[in-house]
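W.,

You were right to be curious about this one. When I first looked at the sequence I had no strong expectations either way, so I just let the prediction run and decided to look at it fresh. Below is the sequence, 256 residues in total, followed by the output.
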Amino acid sequence: MFTSGGDPNLERAYRTHWAPAGHVEPASEKPRPRPKKLTVLAADHAWECTLCGEDGDFFLKGESGGVCLDCADLGHLEFLPSGDAALTGRARKASRLSAVVVRWNLRRNRYERQGILAEPAAIEQAARECLSDADVRARRRVRDSTRRAVEDQRFQGEFAAAIREQFPGCPPERAEAIALHAAARGSGRVGRSAPARKLDPDAVRLAVAASVRHVDTDYDDLLLAGVERDTARAEVFDRVESVLSAWRDGAAALDT
């Protein structure tokens, strides 16, 4: 077919395309869903496999009870304890099949990670890789540790400044002590929360209130005496608010 204007692009669009009989254009492949992570439980009490009656250190939780690794077709995997993030990451990447191992912590009322199960060859490969670049990773850890220390010092200074701005009556050395305590890395305290990292006024107030509660009241003595946490907080509430109010107004709190 030809157009009156002789437009080559338009004529190419009208050109007949021939294909073999039965030919079907391949459909675009959809990305495969990522496989779910297998979770294996580390036994903390005596148990028996619901399929074979054997016991073991690990089991897979099923609808009717625990299943041993052999019955779950995971018996060929080897346990790699937690502790070396590089080794764990490389072993999991190299292993075609792996599982996360967790154990129930009764005191904390939660599952805690113990390590992974991975193919022995993958663990050996990961160990060789870690050994080959151990010096490089050690130097990186030193650099990262130095960087984090500088970042922590800077943030603690900013947090102490935010405390003094919101509570001008708070003694400078006390503000620095509160910032150092609340913003300690890995502490899980309010100073490490996302709002606190942005110096949110509510987060700053919570950190100061926590310090006042422990330092300027008999809150800790009440807890040691067996008083419930909520009850103890209620008993010292007025004192905490009195100190915060005085500091907010620029005055040093007086002992009462």
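Here's what jumped out at me. The CA atoms of residues 64 and 195 lie 44 Å apart. And, maybe more interesting for your project: The longest helix spans residues 134-166.

Coffee later to discuss?

I.
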